[in-house]
């Protein structure tokens, strides 16, 4: 797993020096024998290092391993570029000297390891009927949302207002997309779900008020209805007045 060379000697010296040492500055926890190579979380296998020391250790691990172990250490070194408010390792100047070299090697190594594997996030993994069945079974086991959860969701959604520009973009995004025809099976399904369902009080008034004053416009054989206050924007984009005004 590990090669005996000058790098392994430096690695042992650095990690041994860190044992029992107390640092008042920023530190990072390091596994002397990496977990990916069988190392444990025992205290004997853990040391606290400065950000620079931590990077140097992972740099040395590449130089003192080979084969699969070296491949894993390349991934580990690549992960050292992570940076957030809890990790300040990029203050080390060593990254400027070595990062590019090992980043290129890591890219080649990763490419070789991934060859022939299906790309799960690009449609490469087929969804089997068994998978679909498991998804359906899991969905049926989920508890129905409580009245409190529904009310909370409605409180968040109701009253939301989108700008005229946003509504226009949403409308334009759907132009030209196929919308049917609806299959007889889907028609029957929707009919059954609505049969016997009473409309809420004021439903008709809400529908009438939502469409009241809408104006028909057309462009390239497409007709739609828009609010009067957004009409000018549509006309500027090449739409023309046309069609009949909805009944009030």
Description:
The chain is mainly alpha-helical and 248 residues long. Among the domains are: 6-114, no CATH class; 210-248, no CATH class. The protein contains ten helices and five strands, in the order αββααααααααββαβ. The protein has a three-stranded antiparallel β-sheet with strand order 4-3-5. It has a two-stranded antiparallel ribbon with strand order 1-2. Strand 3 (215-219) and strand 4 form a beta hairpin. Helix 1 (6-18) packs antiparallel against helix 2 (51-63), helix 2 (51-63) packs antiparallel against helix 3 and helix 3 packs across helix 4. The longest helix is centred in the middle third of the chain and has 21 residues, at 94-114. It is elongated.
Distance, first to last CA: 82 Å
Average per-residue pLDDT, rounded, comes to: 79
Cα-based radius of gyration, to the nearest Å? 32 Å
User: Strand arrangement, largest sheet?
Assistant: 4-3-5
Order of helices and strands: HEEHHHHHHHHEEHE
Q: From the structure provided, what is the oligomeric state, counting identical versus distinct chains?
A: single chain
Give the biggest sheet.
Answer: 3 strands, antiparallel
The unreliable regions are 90-94
Structural class assignment = mainly alpha
Q: What level of helicity do the residues show?
A: 40-55%
Number of strands: 5
- What coarse outline follows from CA principal-axis ratios? elongated
- Quote the beta fraction: 5-15%
Number of helices: 10
């Amino acid at each position: 797993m590990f090669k005996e060379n000058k790098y392994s000697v430096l690695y042992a010296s650095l990690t041994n020096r860190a044992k029992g040492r107390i640092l008042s500055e920023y530190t990072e926890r390091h596994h002397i024998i990496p977990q990916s190579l069988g190392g444990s979380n025992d205290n004997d296998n853990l040391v606290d290092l400065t950000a620079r020391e931590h990077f140097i250790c992972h740099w040395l691990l590449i130089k003192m391993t080979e084969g699969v172990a070296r491949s894993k250490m390349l991934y580990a070194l690549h992960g050292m570029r992570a940076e957030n408010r809890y990790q300040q390792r990029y203050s080390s100047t060593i990254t400027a000297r070595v990062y590019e070299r090992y980043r290129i090697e890591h890219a080649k190594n990763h490419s070789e390891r991934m060859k022939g594997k299906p790309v799960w996030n690009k449609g490469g993994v087929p969804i089997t009927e068994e998978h679909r069945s498991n998804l359906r079974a899991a969905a049926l086991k989920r508890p129905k949302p409580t009245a409190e959860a529904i009310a909370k969701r409605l409180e968040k959604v109701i009253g939301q207002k989108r700008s005229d520009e946003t509504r226009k973009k949403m409308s334009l995004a759907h132009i030209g997309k196929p919308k049917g025809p609806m299959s007889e099976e889907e028609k029957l399904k929707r009919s059954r779900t609505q049969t016997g369902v009473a409309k809420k009080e004021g439903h008709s008034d809400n529908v009438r008020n939502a469409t009241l004053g809408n104006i028909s416009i057309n462009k390239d054989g497409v007709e739609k209805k828009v609010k009067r206050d957004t009409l000018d924007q549509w006309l500027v984009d090449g739409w023309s007045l046309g069609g009949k005004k909805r009944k009030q």
